[in-house]
Structure prediction request, 207 residues.
Amino acid sequence: WSSDVCSSDLTSTCVCAPELERKPPKDPARTRMLMFAYSHLGDTLGNPHVPNLGDFNGAVAAYEKMSRLADDAADEDTQNALTQLDAPMSASRLGGARLAQGNPAAALPTLQKSVAALQRIIARDPNNHSYVDHLAPVMELVGDAQEALGQLAEAAASYANEIKLIEPLRHLDPANSSTSATLTESRLKLGLVLSREGDPKAFDPIN
Prediction:
């Protein structure tokens, strides 16, 4: 498997697909396939969480197109649970890429938009724990962006809210290593931010 070949193939797909998208009739399934093509292209170019080509600018450009398609689909079909989830998930990918690009000021509103949308989804279906799994890492990214901007009190609040969100899941499934790791990381980040603020009890959340 070659990242360069994958990037070339995906780029060719993304260049040709918008022309098909403009041709009537508009096809939601085809639009979603294009959205995923941009997502995979962005991942290959510069998703910081997977092996990538280090092209963060290219990744952001691909994710911006993905997010636009997802937002348009969500606006057009407000009753479709899948498209309503695609929009905030796409926004979180875009915000994370902007943060990796070194642009927390651009990342923050995009990530906050994702958090707000996911919170609305959870409010409609509070027993679906998979939505919480989606929301928690985005809340952490919001905290990361706020910390990078020097907004330490806001970052601490974001990390604390993430901890509050995922602690019940750990009690429901103590054997879930992913939830435990996320909780530990969030507590560590909260402690580090509080220590920067001079809080003498900064590392209590880690214990």
Observations:
- Residues 56-76 form the longest helix (21 residues).
- The mean pLDDT is 86.
- Residues 122 and 155 are 22 Å apart (CA to CA).
